[in-house]
Amino acid sequence: MLFPTTCILPACIVLVSLTLSAALNLTLPHQHPDPEAVVQDVHRRLNASLSRRLLSSSSSSCGTGNPIDDCWRCDPNWASNRQRLADCGIGFGQSALGGRDGRIYVVTDSSDSDVVDPKPGTLRYGVLQEEPLWIIFSADMMIRLKHELIINNFKTIDGRGHNIEITGNGCLTVQDVSHIIIHNIHIHDCKPSGNTNIRSSPTHVGFRGVSDGDGISIFGASHIWVDHCSLWHCKDGLIDAIMGSTAITISNSYFAHHNEVMLLGHKDSNAPDSGMQVTIAFNHFGEGLVQRMPRCRRGYIHVVNNDFTEWQMYAIGGSANPTINSQGNRYTAPVDADAKQVTKRVDTEENDWADWNWRTEGDIMVNGAFFVPSGVGLSAQYSKASSLEPKSAGLIDQLTLNAGVFGDPRDTSGISNPGFSGAGTTTATTADGGGGNGSNVGDSDYFGMIFGSDAPPAHSSATSILLSLLIILVLYTITNRGALLSLQLLTL
Q1: If the chain, 492 residues long, is cut into consecutive pieces of 10 residues, what is the mean pLDDT of each piece?
Q2: 292 is catalytic
Q3: Residues 6+ apart with CB under 8 A from 454
Q4: pTM score > 0.85 for this model?
Q5: How many helices (H) and strands (E) are present in the chain, helices listed first?
Q6: Residue-range domain boundaries for the chain
Q7: Residue of 292, 297, 330, 345 marked active site
Q8: Is 35-399 a domain of CATH 2.40.50.1020?
Q9: Strand order of the sheet with strand 149-150?
């Protein structure tokens, strides 16, 4: 690629912007320019957490190897430092701040009787405020929403310490906002509602049409992290992310008893969803599920170290050329001989999807499950991932041990319970990494990766170009040598 030798500065800036945007394939402002670097960071942090667990005494350590949980849960005083959780995210949504830099807001009233003028002390009153808030609860609560709960920027809904259930009409709406964390909440039996006025901020009340009945609806939003939630039985999706949403992590959650579990991408023709980037990690896709775990349109989806124990149609589906990077998962196929395939290209002929980048790396296939990959194995986007050969799927039981809300029946960790009072715990059996192509737990590199140092990956060529151009523009501004900027021919 060549830039002209001489150009007018404003024209150069426009040209550079367009060139860099094309080079980095950016369609959204919060899209990461190098998704592969994010994937490698997840691997690195998981390796570090598993290594620490291996080196610690099993009788005295609460570490599970799960890098998110081990970041905060071993602190016996976690309840006095709740906002530390915001520093524990991984993947594309790891920068979600929630209400980390704000005050603690305590929900003391479980009612939701007025969606235009909610009472102080209710959940609705807290989530619509303009300031960052870390929202917690004073007691166990069943919150039956009158209409959809519209969440404002920089909010955390933190259910640790109590049994918190959100149900009813509309459920959670994350629309055109950023920096949202939803943690340790039951969300279930959500129904469509609307055609009414609903307050979305202290200064705005607007008319809302009928909502879809999603558990969590993410619409045009960024920096979103859903962690340790249990979701089931909603009218539409359990979690849907559409209309240019990006920088999302969905982790440590439990999904059950639902048809269309998770939709990522609005429709095939919606170009902004090409910039959607989602990490799906350490989740348990459990009983009574049918399809869409997830169903993707466009974007880059990293599916890593999840346990898929039931589907009736397929687990991962897509259309419009999404990138699917499946690493270290366990897929257990149903009894139905016609539903063994993990993947489904929706309404697309094979000659159209043959070049899509769908990869399986180190996954364990159980009961006849099979993943149909596609695309060029050593494409630029996957050359690093292919060389890493993750092998940690044998540790799935350990990594997903506490998936869902802490204290639910699946949580048998024997660790001090941050979920809710009265939940029984038993002593857990340590996963030994056996079976399939799982790793040897004696090997500290659980993904089979070799890193020369802890240094971050080298800058991509496009990033180097950007830095060089910024230096040139700065020098031009300092020297102020005229309206024409001479650039030497650059061969890229």
Answers
A1: 45 43 66 96 93 72 88 94 98 98 98 98 98 98 98 98 97 98 98 98 98 97 98 98 98 98 96 97 97 97 96 98 95 97 96 94 93 70 40 77 89 46 30 32 33 33 46 43 32 34
A2: yes
A3: 44
A4: no
A5: 8, 33
A6: 6-27+463-486, 35-399
A7: 292
A8: no
A9: 149-150, 172-175, 216-219, 239-242, 262-264, 295-297, 316-319, 343-345
